[in-house]
Amino acid sequence: MPCFRYAIGVLRYKMSLKDNINLFQRELQEFRCRLIAVSKTKPPEMVQEAFDSGQRIFGENKAQEMMTKYDQLPKEIEWHMIGHLQTNKVKYIAPFVALIHSVDSLKLLEEINKQGKKIGRVIPCLLQVYIAQEETKFGFDAAELNTLLTNEVMSQFEFVKIQGLMGMASLTDDQEKIRSEFKGLKTLFDKIKSGPLPGNTEMKELSMGMSSDYKIALAEGSTLVRIGTAIFGERNVLR
Question: Closest Cα partner for 225 from 36, 22, 54, 38?
C-alpha cells in the first residue's frame, strides 16, 4: 500500500496527461502559483503531448537532456533547470534556459555569468537553500546566503539575475516536518526580500514543492511547484 506522500501522484497519473495538467493548472491558479511539469527521462513525444495540452513550463535535471529536447521541441517552451548543475554543463543551456533553480555555489554563479557574457544574455537564476536534513541535498544555508548577498562580488555579475529561492524538503512521511522546512524557507525569503539587495537580485519566485508535498508548499507560499510523477507517471530509468 503506497504511503501518504505518494498517494496523490498514484491517483493522478492514472488519468490522462491532459487531465492531469488541467487539474493542476486549475488548482494552482487559486494560489497564483505556476506549474513546472518535470519531464526528466520522459521522451520528447510525451513532452509534446503535454505542450499540446496547454503546458508551457518544463523542468529538467540534466543539461544535455534539456539541450536535446530544446532542439526537438517547440521553441515556445520555457525550460527550467531544476537539478544539480555542474559548471562545465552551463554552456549547453545558457543560450535558452528560462530559469536555473539550482544555483548552490558562488563558483556556479561565476560560471553562469561568464557564459551569459559570452552570448550577451542575462540568465535568470534562483539560489538553492539547504532546508532538508539529508546529506544528499545541495544548497546554501541561511548564513551562507546572507554572506553571498552582501558580498560586493555580486554586483559584478552583470549577466545573472537572481529572482528568488528554491528548496527541497526532506523525503519523509512526516507532514509537520515538511511544513516546518517550507515555512522556514518562506520566512527566509521574506526576510531577504525586505532587506537591501544587490541590483541584480529580487525576491519574486519561491520554488518549493513536488508531487508528494506540493499541497503543503502551496499553503506555505510557493510560487513554482515542480510536478513530475503526478503528471507523467513513474520516472523512466535511463541506462
Answer: 36
Instruction: Record the pTM.
Output: 0.91
> Cell numbers of 93, please?
543551456
- pLDDT tens digit sequence for 210-237: 999 999 999 999 999 999 999 998 755 4
User: In this predicted model, what pLDDT tens digit does every residue of 79-93 receive, in sequence order?
Assistant: 999 999 999 999 999
Cell digits of residue 186 = 518562506
E strands present in the chain: 34-38, 57-60, 78-81, 99-103, 123-129, 160-167, 201-207, 224-227
Q: What one-character-per-residue DSSP string does 193-210 give?
A: HHS---TTEEEEEEE---
- Cβ atoms of 177 and 213 within 8 Å: the answer is no
Domain extent listing, the chain: 4-232
CATH architecture for segment(s) 4-232: Alpha-Beta Barrel (3.20)
Choose among 149, 145, 165: nearest CA to 157: 149
Residue type, 149: L
> What's the rounded Cα separation, in Å, for the pair 19 and 21?
5
Residue 36: which of 232, 190, 185 has the closest Cα? 232
Q: What is the Cα–Cα distance from 11 to 31, expressed in whole angstroms? A: 22
Chain centroid to Cα 119, Å, comes to 23
